[in-house]
Amino acid sequence: MFAFRLDSRSGVPTYLQLVKQVRRALLVGYLRPGDRLPTVREVAAALVVNPNTVVKAYRDLEHAGLVTARAGQGTFITGTLKPIPPPSYTRLSRSLHTWLRGARNAGLDAEQIGALVAAVIDDSEAEGGAA
Amino acid sequence: MFAFRLDSRSGVPTYLQLVKQVRRALLVGYLRPGDRLPTVREVAAALVVNPNTVVKAYRDLEHAGLVTARAGQGTFITGTLKPIPPPSYTRLSRSLHTWLRGARNAGLDAEQIGALVAAVIDDSEAEGGAA
Amino acid sequence: MFAFRLDSRSGVPTYLQLVKQVRRALLVGYLRPGDRLPTVREVAAALVVNPNTVVKAYRDLEHAGLVTARAGQGTFITGTLKPIPPPSYTRLSRSLHTWLRGARNAGLDAEQIGALVAAVIDDSEAEGGAA
Amino acid sequence: MFAFRLDSRSGVPTYLQLVKQVRRALLVGYLRPGDRLPTVREVAAALVVNPNTVVKAYRDLEHAGLVTARAGQGTFITGTLKPIPPPSYTRLSRSLHTWLRGARNAGLDAEQIGALVAAVIDDSEAEGGAA
DNA sequence: GTGGTCTAGACCACC
DNA sequence: GTGGTCTAGACCACG
Q1: pLDDT for C129 beyond 90
Q2: Long-range pairs for B13-21 at CB < 8 Å and ≥24 separation?
């Protein structure tokens, strides 16, 4: 079953964090059409969050055509989002993991790693690297 | 002179984005004690944002002991944040850049790359990878 | 319910007066963890002050780890500040009250009393009286 | 020679702190008509403050009729402010000193003492104690 | 209804 | 000119 996580220090609204995690899972191939999301109540209980907040996230996703709620059955993935091809995913994820290990071996903590990653990505986007 | 950037789609409050960029610059060694940040009015004009929003960010940083505001003179870096050692920075940043190029050559767009990075980092943190 | 007071002639910014009153109430034992502060809107209405000014004060307190804001619920005391032991408080407060009565009986007005108190305290601090 | 002190953490504007100290010294009998205040330059140098700030304070005092600037000679006290009668002053100051010593012996630090004093004075003013 | 963010614009303190 | 405070009022996230 898909599990959500929250980072209360990020400043990102709770409902947006949920939305982003589903989108991310779709992109990465971890969720696929037909999969069932945990119920609003389950998520609310697990994250200690108001059910309305979860409802809002699910409604956002439904609005974007990514999920469909079926009364009495739950919420299901019914859309997709140009997922990363599994072979690329495997390869890139593996090499990124290696890079991460290197960073940790160099003594970097989570905050430093986050700063480095953000700096490099921002950087390369700034110079039109997305081309 | 230090320059800020905004991502309006991220959902992160403007002032927090500014705060994080300064912290990141400190971690990465791009800002150091004694450096002067752009004035409140300059930032507000450059980002087309209300001066109060910038004031809030600078105040947060001052609260954290990272900068000091001097009326009539500007806002200066006066604290530090366990910066990444430059050699590690150079090496890791270079290899991450290479990885990024590989991801782009595999046809991934910015959103897919973001999802992949987030997935890998979250993952490895979840399993106590920080050890 | 905790009540705030303002002294517009003091020259101390409104929001700082609020902050100091909460800190003082903590030191004196009048507020304790779990207590709820009046809502931003209540304070703003009672003091005829802009809500943002109150928000600023509460935010400062939160930053200092003394209170925690819970959206939809209010702002609660969640920290403490080395309170004065109640017995000492009772004894010292009582004798200071007596002193105050003496000063007033001698014909001193509020400004004179303030000057005297400030002079004596400053004085004794200057000579390292805190020892 | 009269000496000024600054408390940068109080939030009270610098120039107001200077004004208040002169008023206090007049009330307490520490300054009397004919006394000469330190020059603007001396104060500015001693407090590491911009001379304009001192000028503003002196102008405020002149405006209030308490001092007079004489070109080339300095600034002199030329007004008064219902001073505390010296006998009362001596007696009250002495007993307050005793109280202070008691508070410190009870282990209270400066912040706690300040809170206690403020609480007691506020309190008694609130109930019309100034009568 | 709670607190949080942002805008617009005035005024003050300090250099 | 700098940063700091305050007001007025809109909109959002959360319960």
Answers
A1: no
A2: B13/A11, B14/B47, B14/B49, B14/B53, B14/B57, B15/B53, B15/B54, B15/B56, B15/B57, B15/B60, B16/A11, B16/B57, B18/B43, B18/B53, B18/B54, B18/B57, B18/B58, B19/B57, B19/B60, B19/B61, B20/A118
